[in-house]
Amino acid sequence: MKVVLLSGSNVGSKTRTAMNYLHKIMNDKHSDVEITLVDLAEFEMVFSDGRNYLEYEGDTKFVLETIMAADAIIIGTPTFQASIPATLKNIFDLLPVNAFRDKVVSMLVTAGTAKHYLMVEQQLKPILAYMKAHIVPTYVFIEEKDFYRKEIVNDDVHFRMDRLAEDTVLLVNAYKSIQEMKDEEYGF
């Protein structure tokens, strides 16, 4: 199983801090999973111009192919102006409309206040549904107050991140089992 942890911003540190912690959880508890952390701050991405994702070059091609090869994607994103960052929106624009078909996608969101949870419900989930993702219903929402000196200090957030990792892996396995049963019906 291949899981991509996508840190969806090119600025700030809180989302990357959370994604690093999630990466550690995945390594510790799911050693059989191939995990790739893609932090958009570390790549030179071009803006979408409508080409097929395979026609891009360099960092853009690497990021897109890494996402497309994954069984699951855990998207980490900050909330900027009550919305997703432009860097993450650009990833969605670069990918084909069915990019997340047969993929499990879960979310981890950092924000300044609790009111920004609506961004996930009204913006991120509809985009992922449109792109045909199997969305993990629960997500981790981390507020400013849960961080101190670039560390997550809220034990409940740690528990929810553990659960997010577990739910993501379980859902990938469940969908694989369902697909195998469907494939067996054809008998060839």
TrEMBL record:
Residue ranges of every copy of the NADPH-dependent FMN reductase-like domain listed in the record: 1-144
Keywords: Flavoprotein, FMN, Oxidoreductase
Annotated InterPro entries: Flavoprotein-like_sf (IPR029039), FMN_Rdtase-like_dom (IPR005025), NAD(P)H-dep_FMN_reductase (IPR051814)
Matching SUPFAM superfamilies: Flavoproteins
Pfam family, one: FMN_red
Entry annotated with the keyword Lipid metabolism: no
Keyword Flavoprotein listed: yes
Protein name (Swiss-Prot/TrEMBL): NAD(P)H-dependent oxidoreductase
Organism: Sporosarcina quadrami
